[in-house]
Design goal:
Layout: H1 6-26, H2 31-36, E1 39-44, H3 48-67, E2 94-99, H4 111-126, E3 130-132, H5 145-161, H6 175-197, H7 201-207, H8 209-226, H9 280-291, E4 297-302, H10 306-321, E5 326-328, H11 336-345, E6 350-354, H12 357-371, E7 376-380, H13 386-391, E8 396-398, H14 404-415
Parallel strand pairs: 1-2, 2-3, 4-5, 4-6, 6-7, 7-8
Helix pairs in contact: 1-3, 1-6, 3-4, 3-6, 4-5, 9-14, 11-12
Length: 417
């Protein structure tokens, strides 16, 4: 829920389990009894195959850790023991999995059903002991009877209709998943060893090194979302153009200051984890637009090469709709003057010229001059003639290398003020 990477979640979970096991054994509890009493609670992300591999790697690594304590089975008739008397039952991991809050969204919230379903499916295929599916509306309201019922039914579909509970290890033998399992196990084990070398999980938590590492991952993932390297369907990619939040507001912010979930530290306390959801910054941006009472209109001035203008218009519509702008697409104009005239008639706040890189040298500057500052002018793409266009006074360009969040924040500051 804090946005940790998969290998971090696993590595730290193993270190935490080992911390409990070590202290219980030192306190005189038999290793076999202590190990059987430990249950792991994992999150599940939307990275489908990686999550399957994570749980499979977790069982393997936990068994290796428990074996080092040489747990002895209290039963004399148990057949599940090694030649040295090691109790293999104690080496089994008891794992509970819960769908993550990190990737839940307020906008296009029914996509959350798809996210939680694939998450639950990956955990079931990986063979966890139990699963909790979060209701799709958890990010913005207290779940009601309907959303909780749907969440329960999501699990029942996997059990009663897909029969995923009838196979011990459905992923066994898959070359891809086996390779992922080994790769994740290696990364997680290296992290586990580094925590142990630093004095164990408890010392690392007190020192704040765990929180710092996870918070850095949170920051990196938010950065990836802002650049659309990590996709949240309906939020930073392919938003619903006509959706309004209405009374919906995110529930994960701090009630005292409305910070959106950032960490707060007080003197004498442990460092905190940042738990802001991946979509939180895009949601704040879109809510800012909606609450302003102004909904900027973005007009696509499509001209020139048919394939390129359509592709760039679609890209631009999706880009600008992430901030809640109204987008007006067009089939194409015969001339720049015709397009500008149509944009003015539509009372556009933004005019986006959509054409091919070669044709921007011909169309962009005349369109910019014809607009004469009546609306924000944007070029869709990063043409070779960009410097020439900038010299002519064109400032705004949107393309795949843009930081979408920062760009839209800049536009909001200009358009909503």
């Amino acid at each position: 829920n804090a946005g940790a990477y998969i290998y971090q979640e696993l590595g730290y979970a193993l270190a935490w389990g080992n911390e409990y096991l070590n202290q219980l054994v030192e306190a005189g509890v038999p290793a076999a009894l202590a190990a059987k009493k430990i249950k792991f609670n994992f999150g599940i992300s939307s990275n489908y195959f990686m999550e399957i591999a994570k749980f499979r790697a977790a069982r393997m690594l936990w068994a290796d850790i428990v074996k080092q304590y040489a747990p002895k089975c209290p039963r004399t008739d148990c057949k599940n023991t090694g030649a040295d008397g090691t109790c293999y039952c104690a080496c089994k991991m008891v794992a509970h999995a819960e769908t993550s809050n990190f990737n839940l969204t307020l906008f296009d919230a029914h996509v959350n059903l798809l996210r939680t379903q694939t998450e639950a499916m990956s955990a079931a295929i990986a063979g966890v002991n139990s699963i909790t599916v979060s209701p799709f509306d958890k990010a913005y309201e207290t779940p009601d009877d309907f959303s909780e019922r749907i969440a329960r039914n999501q699990q029942l579909l996997l059990k009663e209709e897909s029969h995923l509970n009838r196979i011990v290890d459905p992923a066994a033998g898959s070359y891809y998943i086996e390779n992922l399992t080994v790769a994740i196990a290696k990364q997680a084990w290296d992290l586990f060893l580094s925590v142990e070398e630093a004095g164990g999980m408890l010392q690392a938590v007190k020192a704040g090194s765990i929180q710092e590492a996870v918070n850095q991952s949170n920051k990196a993932r938010h950065e990836a979302v802002s650049k659309r390297k990590e996709i949240l369907l309906g939020t930073n990619q392919y938003p619903n153009f006509n959706e309004l939040a209405g009374d919906k507001r995110p529930l994960d912010g701090c009630k005292k200051c409305g910070c959106g979930g950032e960490a707060h530290e007080e003197e004498g306390t442990l460092a905190k984890l940042e738990t802001a959801r991946a979509a939180s910054e895009f949601e704040a941006l879109r809510l800012e637009t909606e609450n302003s009472g102004k909904r900027p209109k973005a007009f696509m001035l499509t001209i020139g090469n048919l394939a390129m203008r359509q592709a760039r218009a679609q890209f631009s519509c999706n880009f600008l709709a992430c901030a809640g702008y109204q987008v007006i697409d067009n089939l194409g104009f015969a001339s720049v003057e015709e397009g500008i005239e149509a944009a003015m008639k539509a009372q556009a706040d933004i005019v986006v010229i959509c054409s091919s890189d070669d044709e921007y040298a011909e169309y962009a500057i005349p369109a910019f001059k014809a607009l004469n500052g009546h609306a924000m002018f944007i070029v869709a793409g990063a043409p070779a003639c960009m410097e020439e266009l900038k010299a002519a006074g064109i400032e705004n360009f949107i393309h795949v290398r843009c930081n979408v969040l920062e760009t839209l924040r800049e536009y909001n500051s200009k358009l909503l003020s």
